[in-house]
Design brief:
The protein is 34% helix and 28% strand. The protein has 255 residues and is an alpha/beta fold. A six-stranded mixed sheet has the order 6-7-8-3-9-10, with helices on both faces. Strands 2-1-4-5 form a four-stranded antiparallel sheet, covered by helices on one side. The protein has a two-stranded antiparallel ribbon with strand order 11-12. The longest helix is centred in the C-terminal third of the chain and has 17 residues, at 172-188.
Length: 255
């Protein structure tokens, strides 16, 4: 269990997070949703240890996350952010192989190479593996980062996946591919923690198991999708009227 207790964060006197209390269970896709500027990415940066808490604490299985060794943390934790800070002409294969760096003893083992090949294949990147990463489209770059993620955590017992709007720039086909992959991965490995920031309500309806709605740096509501995904909470979260519609494929919300 991930527990966030009374987490607060300020920048130049501006409260970005206000006493966040939150519990996240393994074996679920836990979506964080809310308007732009409500604190979603800042919360994810705290969960990844990129930002240390100013107030409050975060624990994983009753151990403060800052007390994990850097080696253990980097083996098990993978982050996909909105920015892609790569300025060097690495090939696609080199980028995916970076996911295995925390696992190398000195050089990549046969297992490392097998996992890299599997990750490239899983995201349809074999034909692009020798391409310069910088020459790819935005959607292709996202797929490379997903493959890097898979290479990093595929053989770990209890990985932590932190994804900040991972569907940006992806065609619908690859949006479905990624979310289906996450659903299958979490189902096959129920010790996985998967926390995803999403904007699209339809995607949240279809793939989320649990949801935390943030508003102005505070938790509006958090819980299982069936408990918290309704027109009332959506309207308060997004300042927009929503109507719930039942379809043969489940609930949808229109606005």
């Amino acid at each position: 269990m991930i527990k966030v207790n009374s987490l607060s964060f300020k920048i130049e006197g501006n409260e970005i997070l206000k006493s966040i209390n939150l519990q996240i269970s393994p074996g679920e896709i836990h979506v964080i949703a809310g308007q732009n500027g409500c604190g979603k990415s800042t919360l994810l940066k705290h969960l990844s240890r990129f930002l240390p808490p100013q107030k409050g604490e975060i624990s994983l299985n009753d151990k403060l996350i800052q007390n994990f060794s850097l080696t253990d943390w980097t083996k098990n934790t993978t982050v996909i952010s909105q920015q892609i800070p790569l300025a060097f002409p690495f090939s696609v294969r080199q980028i995916v192989a970076m996911g295995r760096y925390p696992h190398y003893s000195w050089q990549p083992s046969n297992l490392d190479l097998e996992i890299i090949d599997l990750a490239l294949s899983r995201f349809n990147l074999n034909e692009l593996e020798n391409r310069n990463f910088q020459t790819l489209s935005g959607g292709e770059k996202q797929r490379v980062l997903f493959a890097k993620m898979l290479a990093q955590i595929d053989d770990q017992e209890a990985p932590l996946l932190l994804l900040d709007e991972p569907l940006n720039a992806l065609d619908v086909h690859f949006q479905i591919q990624l979310m289906s992959f996450l659903k299958q991965f979490v189902s096959k490995k129920p010790t996985t923690y998967c926390i995803v920031i999403l904007h699209d309500i339809h995607t949240i309806c279809k793939y989320a198991d649990a949801i935390t709605f943030l508003r102005n740096g505070e938790v509006l509501v958090t819980g299982k999708k069936e408990e918290v995904l309704n027109s009332n909470f959506l309207e308060v979260t997004y300042d927009t009227k929503f109507q719930e519609v039942q379809t043969p494929h489940g609930r949808v919300f229109i606005y």
